[in-house]
## 1
Amino acid sequence: MDERRKFIRLNANVVVQWKKVDKENAAIGDTAVSKNVSVGGISLILYDEKLEIGDIINLEIQLPQEENVFAKGKVVWINEFEIMGQVNKKRYDVGVEFVDIKELDSNRIKKYVFTFFHEGMF
């Protein structure tokens, strides 16, 4: 499979608060941990809440040594999996594309991602 990414991704576990408002204005959300992060989006591991492709969610990303980043994202893919030894404990690997993010917040993510790649080169 030839995978072409638009943005460099950093495999990193950062804490993310996410919230989706459904059609009845009932907010659902939780805390998640990222699998990876890039300037264009983030992959989250969700524990109990299942989202649908196309859902729009608000994100608050807690980058180490940076102020929190705020973005609005669109769910673009979902992979369901189970943790071995934990019966009926479903997890969801969720790909979120940023659809609304301020330039300052985008630059914070860029700095975070490229700092690790730069440090790894030496």
## 2
Amino acid sequence: MKDLDAQNTIELLNQIMEFELAGVVRYTHYSLMVTGPNRILIVDFFKAQANESLLHAQEAGEIITGLEGHPSQRISTIEETNQHSVKDLLQESLNHEQKALEMYKKLLDVVKDASIYLEEYTRTKIGQEEMHNLEIKKMLRDFS
């Protein structure tokens, strides 16, 4: 096993935490903007995504403090396209989830073979993000 690069791990976890907190705001906004006959189902989906983003941010923060780091109080920049059709919201969601997946993969590169716990945590998050990508792609199919 290699030594854990704690500083790099903390920096990446802070980026993830900021991104997940932005997801809370993003998905809450999306849930408010949905209109149309499938509104209730899609609003519930976005609210669940917002709740999961908050949980992911909290989990990252717990690890940061466990590594004796300081959790960020910032959130990532949220682009507002002012495009609020369900298709547009889902496409933005897919872009967001793909970026989250990239961030967790970057973290995996740092923690792999240095911490079994952090490696398993990161692999779990990667699996969840991959599943979100698949779900959103399926939701987008009817719009193509």
## 3
Amino acid sequence: MDKKKIVKKLSEIFTLELSGVIRYTHYSLMIFGYNRLPLIDFFKSQASESLAHANLAGEYITGLGGHPPLGIDNIKESYKHNIQDILKETLDHEKKAIQVYYDLLSLIDGKSVYLEEYARTMIGQEELHVLEVEKMLKEN
């Protein structure tokens, strides 16, 4: 098992999840219209979950002898704050997360049960998020 590569991928996950905290907090503040209240709760929940995911990745980083980075992913401001645009940006972020967790899984496949279980659990959670956001974007 190449710990350096795994720590590097976990660090990527850590920064991606921390950027999710900022992204989702921002979205929760920028929601307007008749769906405002349930969407605010949804995005605040997503922000909290991203923080929990970042903390978990950080625990694995330090457990493997690494040092969690202080940076975050580059978050581009689109200045498009209608609900559909925000949900599309959310979908892109979630799909990126899925890919990074799959990358981690490919690095550890068959080499570490606890890291495999972690990666698979995170992939499952992110895939469920994608399904939910896709449903939110779907028109009747």
## 4
Amino acid sequence: MCCLALTAGFLGPRIALFIWWIFGNKVDAAFDTWIWPLLGLVFLPWTTLAYVLAWGPLNGVSGAGWLVVALGFAADIATYSARAAKSRYQTAY
């Protein structure tokens, strides 16, 4: 069960961001170039997804939107640390 949750946390935001990028236009509007969403897709998918959610066409990201981005960053840190903790504390049977 833990492996399923870890896989969903690791692949879920990447798949969601990729589909939103292909079939929507908000990812292209939120970033000036294609390199930043690509790097976000590879390294910080939760943060990139939160940035796209918080981005607005008039102000960009402002106010409570930065809290959403910070929560996305915390989710990225939790995803990476959970994978490391699982490998460290996994017992061999």
